[in-house]
Amino acid sequence: MNPIETVTPTEETIGSNRYPLVTGMYVYVKNRHALQIPGLQQFLFELTSERALAPDGYLIEQGLVSLDDMGRNRARDRALKLGL
Question: Given this model, what pLDDT does residue 83 score?
Answer without folding.
Answer: 66
